[in-house]
Each structure stands twice: as structure tokens, then as C-alpha cells.
User: Fold this.
Amino acid sequence: MGMVGTVGLVLHPQRDSKKAIDTILRWAADKGATVLGLPEEVGRIDCTAVPVDADALVERADLLVGLGGDGTMLRTMRLLAGRPTPILGVNLGKLGFLAEIDVDELAGTLSAIDDHRYTIEPRMAIKSRLGGTDVTAFNDIALVRIPGEGLAAIAVTPAGSDFVRFAADAVIVATSTGSTAYSFSAGGPIVSPRVEAVLVVPAAAHSSFNRALVLPADEEVTLEVLPTSGRLAVEVDGAVVAHLCPGDTVTVAAWPGAAKVVRLGTTFYERARRKLRVDGSAEAL
Assistant:
């Protein structure tokens, strides 16, 4: 008996997903499976997917399919955080790290998953509490300077030990998944998603010490906005969700294995080489 009786859809807000959705609907019709989607997303496309709210989508789906790119996959992972439901990423545009397949491979991939011919790559998240609201990120939580309001002056305290103070454009707390995103652009290391670690990376630090910290998943890290800091924006996976002022603190903790991403053979290193155009030194070629 196949494992997929209900497929849930999460769509990119702008990219054309009609071909992918039609492929999923045809596959589901042949298998007698149900296809669900969020009303505001499937409502803009002429299709027979059943509109349900986010809670029903998460509760009922045996497989969640993110149609878009890495941003859509991050949103899908946050929807399912803490649940064992597998997530398949389908690339609809630029090559990403999280999407596993292109649209032309979709029907065969759904059948492979239905036949249990796939592996799961657990993805760690990080979580915090901002203004009384719990937030979860699969890439990063960043404290970012607001133009015209001064630098981000932040004390970093891992596991209760005062360690370093940065004056920078931003201080980024990233997962291994996020090591190839904002953290990477700030000079942080590339870390395999199999490594459950928390990275703390300053962006454009005004200091002779500008190194990233790599912390184990069982240690919390607290960021304190210092009196010399300007007002800061807090970005969660790239979206501004709050602002902080001097004296405010944010504590970030790891959430190991918070999402389960479907893999069918590609490796992180293959995706990283293509996406980041890793060629190495010319002298070594």
C-alpha cells in the first residue's frame, strides 16, 4: 500500500506553478489520492485542489510539496515544524539548496515516495521568543542595523558565558541550513546540514575580531543590545518581525530535527558547488 493518500501544496506567491499542480493532480487522480492547498494560494489557480486552512493542511497531509524555491521551502518547513511529515521541494526557478527536483521529475518522484523509495534529511531549526511571540527559523535569526540609526552593538553570551561584543552591520545566528545564506555572505563557514550546530556570525564587524562562532545544539546563546547600539531590526528567515532597542535581549536555542526533507540521491556538496559556483583556486586547476 502506498504511503501518500493526501498531498498538501504550498505555493510560491508569484511563480507560475500551474504545470506542477496539474502534474500532481493527474498523479493523485490515478492513485485515488487527495490534493489540499491553502485557499489564498490554490484559489488563484484554476485547479481541483481542495482549499483548507493551514491547520487542516498540516494535520491531513501525508506529504507536503513546496512549489517554488528556497523561500517557499522555508515557509513549508515552518508550517510543519516538529512534525514527522516529509517535505518535497520542487524548483520553479533559480536553483536552490532545499528544492530536490524540477517539475519534469515530479510524477516519477511522487511514485518513488509513495513506494517508500526515498531518504529523509532532518533539518535543525532555531527558535526564540520576541515580544511574547515564539518564532522559528530554519535559516537564521539576524539582528540588523537600520540605516541612519547607528551600528548593531551586541554582546554575545553562549551557555551563560560572556564571550564577545561586536559592533557590526548585523549579528546573525544561523543553522547549518542557513550557513549557505546570509551567514555565508558575511564570511561564515559552509556547514553540512547533517551537523547540528548553531553559528553566530558578525556581518562587517568593526573589530579586529570578526570570526564566526560555532556552538553545539545543546547550548543557548543570548544576544544583548548594548547601550551604544542603534535600534535594530530582527529578521527571521529574511522577514522583519520585530525591532530591538538598547537593553533588549534575545535568547536563541536549537531545535534539532524540526523538519524532514525528502532526498532522492543529490548531495549537499553537489548543490553547494552549483549554487555557490565553487571552483577553487586557479593555481590548483
In short: The first helix runs from residue 18 to 31. The chain has a mean pLDDT of 93.
